[in-house]
Design brief:
The structure is a single chain. By secondary structure, the protein is α/β, with parallel strands linked by helices. It has one domain: 3-Layer(aba) Sandwich (Rossmann fold). It contains nine helices and six strands. The chain has a six-stranded mixed β-sheet. 41% of the residues are buried.
Length: 252
């Protein structure tokens, strides 16, 4: 979860706090289960879930409890769904870009969860944005008509495992990264920022106090499915997705 090269090495106190959190935080495995498949009936839809440990489902025991399993279950009644999960704990945006360059990826929808490991590294927001732009351009080269759904960064400074002054530094960084990501999505026709803000209650977090629980993965999947249905179901109004997003945004 916590990188030793944390940006937060600006002062010995922040470094000590970061290392202490790293030592105290359990390292949870990625869940077992399928990472690709085909299911459902209806118009075809090719889905890629891409990213870091949260995309991979860390925090639950099985993929059917994670983002991939819950999202595909929600989409199954509406589409003949071809889906794939390409995610790994610790992945940064630049590492993910190198990963997708290894093989063509042709899909209709890409759900992305990235940025936390970048935020916890020494890079600045502009360098992260450059990596994000390169990633999006790389994905669109293979899938020029794809819609990309980006997930906002969680409010790390509010997580129970972080104390001051580390929490304050994380809070300020998260605000900068999310503001930059919001503007980036406004400028990119193919991209949309999910209206998602997950709760930070004990029930909403996994046993490490950092990753989502099954109930939070459910909320995330519901938010993403509403947006996908709005974009890919003929005659579907955007009202339902907007209402769902506002509901999720108010859960914190």
């Amino acid at each position: 979860m916590m990188r030793a090269s944390l940006l937060l090495v600006f002062s010995p106190l922040l470094l000590m706090q970061a290392l202490w959190v790293k030592l105290r935080t359990p390292r949870l495995p990625e869940p077992e289960g399928e990472r690709c498949g085909e299911l459902g009936e209806g118009p075809p839809l090719r889905l890629l879930i891409l990213g870091d440990s949260a995309a991979a489902g860390v925090g639950v025991a099985r993929q059917d409890e994670a983002l991939s399993g819950q999202l595909t279950a929600l989409l199954q009644p509406h589409f003949r769904l071809h889906w794939r999960l390409l995610a790994k704990s610790g992945m940064t945006t630049s590492q993910t870009l190198r990963l997708i360059r290894q093989e063509p990826i042709r899909v209709d929808v890409i759900l992305i969860s990235l940025g936390v490991n970048d935020l916890l590294s020494p890079i600045g927001v502009q360098r992260w944005l450059s990596a994000t732009r390169a990633l999006i351009e790389g994905l669109l080269q293979d899938s020029p008509d794809a819609r990309l759904l980006l997930t906002p960064l969680p409010p790390l400074g509010a997580f129970p495992g972080f104390a001051q002054p580390l929490a304050g530094v994380l809070q300020r960084r998260e605000a900068l990264f999310n503001q930059a990501l919001k503007q980036f999505c406004r400028d990119q026709n193919a991209c949309q920022l999910l209206p998602l803000r997950l709760p930070l209650t004990s029930e909403a977090l996994a046993s490490d106090g950092f990753h989502p629980s099954a109930s939070s993965y459910r909320l995330w999947a519901e938010c993403a499915s509403q947006v996908i249905l709005t974009q890919h179901t003929p005659g579907c109004s955007s009202d339902s997705a907007d209402e769902s997003g506002q509901h999720l945004a108010n859960l914190v």
